[in-house]
Design goal:
GO terms for molecular function: metal ion binding; sulfuric ester hydrolase activity. Its cofactor is Ca(2+). Pfam families: Sulfatase (PF00884). This protein has 13 helices and 18 strands. With about 550 residues, the protein is α/β, with parallel strands linked by helices. It has 2 domains: about 350 residues, Alkaline Phosphatase, subunit A; about 110 residues, 2-Layer Sandwich (Arylsulfatase, C-terminal domain), CATH 3.30.1120. α7 runs parallel beside α8. The radius of gyration is 24 Å and the shape is globular.
Length: about 550
């Protein structure tokens, strides 16, 4: 309870100290947006709400749970604070612990075990992508008249052209295909000698945009251009997947101004990156108002996973970090801001997962969800907008059958129901169960960032008794995962293990192929991009068929 009190106190202090930005002081007053539209040739009243809302989904990269003003951070995020305060804060909201898994679940509404992406991320050199037989959110929105645009980080594979964003439902794409890269040069080395350029406009390298502009600002400018050129009376879906605040830690100099006092260089750079991101979201919101979208818009903000303390991120007071199934890896900053919300200025503590956006947004867009699509997400709009109970009672955080096995895991430790050597995690109502090797499990308090370099001296280190491969927590009562209840409640453990076993029966095989040497950008004009040629495969197949036919003919002659 002390930790909760400290967190709440910091949050209040943050809001009192920094306050909220006023839209009037930063942009357009009443009537000015209408005048701006009229000046651009739009008819007055173009922003009048239609039946299909404009949907803007903003995905931050590696933002820690604590790294927002209203969670008590020392980093100023006045835009995020204001949007969240006027909307609905999601305080029981879950994503996946890494980039690709969260993005795949958002765009398909399916758990990783149902797309084959349950292990790690898609690497640049792997012949892998989101399976082509999965229907995507933009494809469903296009069916009901939406214009669909993606700006930012894809990270769902690109080894063949059919995997590219423009082939998966987006009318336009501007951004990067890989998981990370230089914010200014858009250059990425996957390993020594395997380096290339990674900035695309639709299906081609965007060399013309290579002007050394910081990616957060460049992506925002692109969003502004899209909004300025689109008719606000026609529904639009904007997926803005910012690169920030993922490493490498880079930011324009002016954003360091308020953070000179932070000694830890990684935390200081991270703070500057987040400050720039906050300003970018302010500019996106102002553009929505200026060009007549705002009154009929739904803005959703989410991080893709927890923060990485070694790269400046903080998940305090949660346990663990990015890449783990502790709360610090999967519990995310999230909120919905919209004039269409019924309960504005509220907090939603109902269970919400990133897969829920797929059915929720399709329903809001008046689209149809095919009966043969086996979704793992739920329509949670009434939960968010009206404060009703969530239809969701459980979350399969993941089952990864090829992750490093826990040495002491066994079927016996899992009561003959489950092999506890396997990395898995599941939430059912208040209970959360983890098995196998859940990952780095320290609590990293703010003091850990007090020195000039990375410092684990202040971390609360965990040394479990040898052989432990099962953990049980009551997350509602113990969101910081400090009291393991697995020994006290063996019947609950058994029930959750059975649920894991049931989920596992529906899993598809893992897709994690070895690297393909043809992926080297040197073989593709110095650019990361599709390298798999369907024609080559077909020719090879045809050639083999020809050889086989000739062999059969020779056999017949011999006979």
């Amino acid at each position: 309870m002390l930790a909760v009190g400290v967190l709440a106190g910091l949050s209040v202090l943050s809001l009192l100290t920094y306050g909220y930005l006023s839209w009037d002081s930063l942009g357009f007053g009443p009537g000015e947006a209408e005048a701006a539209r009229t000046g651009l040739g739009e008819e007055p009243g173009a922003s009048a709400p239609g039946s299909q809302p404009h949907i803007v989904f903003i995905l931050a990269d590696d933002q820690g749970f604590r790294d927002v003003g209203y969670h008590g951070s020392e980093i100023r995020t006045p835009t995020l604070d204001k949007l969240a305060a006027e909307g609905v804060k999601l305080e029981n909201y879950y994503v996946q612990p890494m980039c690709t898994p969260s993005r795949s679940q958002f765009i398909t509404g399916k758990y990783q075990i149902h797309t084959g992406l349950q292990h790690s991320i898609i690497r640049p050199t792997q012949p892998n992508c989101l399976p082509l037989d999965n229907v995507t959110l933009p494809q469903k929105l296009k069916e009901v008249g939406y214009s669909t645009h993606m700006v930012g980080k894809w990270h769902l594979g690109f080894y063949r052209k059919e995997c590219m964003p423009t082939q998966r439902g987006f009318d336009t794409f501007f951004g990067s295909l890989l998981g990370s890269g230089d914010y200014y040069t858009h250059f990425k080395c996957d390993s020594p000698g395997i380096c290339g350029y990674d900035l695309y406009e639709n299906d081609n390298a965007a060399w013309d945009h290579d002007n050394g502009i910081y990616s957060t600002q460049m992506y925002t400018q692109k969003v502004q251009q899209i909004l300025a050129s689109h008719n606000p009376r026609k529904p639009i879906f904007l997926y803005i997947a910012y690169q920030a605040v993922h490493s490498p830690l880079q930011a324009p100099g002016k954003y360091f101004e308020h953070y000179r006092s932070i000694n830890n260089i990684n935390r200081r750079r991270y703070a500057a990156m987040l400050a720039c991101l906050d300003e970018a979201i302010n500019n996106v919101t102002l553009a929505l108002k200026k060009y007549g979208y705002y009154d009929n818009s739904i803005i959703i903000y989410s991080s893709d996973n927890g923060g990485q303390p070694m790269a400046g991120g903080s998940n305090w007071p949660l346990r663990g970090s990015k890449g783990t199934y502790w709360e610090g890896g999967i519990r995310a900053v999230g909120f919905v801001h919209s004039p269409l919300l019924k309960n504005k200025g509220s907090v939603c503590k109902e269970l919400v997962h990133i897969t829920d956006w797929f059915p929720t947004l399709i329903t809001l867009a008046e689209g149809q969800i095919d009966e043969d699509i086996q979704l793992d997400g739920y329509d949670i709009w009434e939960t968010i907008s009206e404060g009703r109970r969530s239809p969701r009672v459980d979350i399969l955080h993941n089952i990864d059958p090829i992750y490093t096995k826990a040495k002491n895991g066994s079927w016996a430790a899992g009561y003959g129901i489950w092999n506890t050597a396997i990395q898995s995690a599941i939430r059912v109502n208040h209970w959360k169960l983890l098995t196998g090797n859940p990952g780095y499990s320290d609590w990293v308090p703010p003091q850990a960032f007090s020195n000039a370099g990375p410092n684990r001296w202040h971390n609360e280190r965990v040394s479990w008794s040898a052989g432990k491969t099962v953990w049980l927590f009551n997350i509602t009562a113990d969101p910081y995962e400090r009291v393991d209840l697995s020994a006290r409640y063996p019947d609950v453990v058994k029930e959750l293990l059975r649920r894991l076993s049931q989920f596992n029966k529906t899993a598809v095989p893992v897709r994690y192929p070895p690297k393909d040497p043809r992926s080297n950008p040197k073989l593709n004009g110095g650019v990361w991009g599709p390298w798999f040629k369907e024609d080559e495969k077909k020719k090879k197949s045809d050639k083999n068929k020809g050889v086989n036919k000739q062999k059969n003919k020779n056999k017949k002659k011999a006979n």
